[in-house]
Design a protein that fits this description.
There is one protein chain. The chain is built from 3 helices and 4 strands, in the order ββααββα. It is α+β, with helices and mostly antiparallel strands. Strands 1-2-4-3 form a 4-stranded antiparallel beta sheet. Strand 1 and strand 2 form a beta hairpin.
Length: 73
């Protein structure tokens, strides 16, 4: 269930994962690599994401990552 802080809605990590259809491991990897960032932390230090963050995460989740592998021939 989203949290409202100072009139703004924030989503917890598990809610973002569910919406974007990604795992917690994926979101934490993206945070560690700087691909995404959390907007806010609650009093416990837990990451919270706003609507813009959620949209960026959904966009990243649907991006196609192509990695070419060259083989000797």
């Amino acid at each position: 269930m989203p949290v409202e802080i100072n009139g703004k809605t924030y989503y917890r990590t598990i809610e973002v994962c569910r919406e974007a259809q990604i795992s917690r491991a994926t979101i934490f990897r993206w945070l560690r690599k700087g691909i995404i960032a959390a907007s806010y932390r609650d009093r416990r230090g837990w990451k919270l994401f706003d609507e813009d963050d959620l949209n960026r995460i959904k966009a990243e989740a649907t991006r196609l990552h192509v990695q070419r592998r060259w083989t000797a021939g």
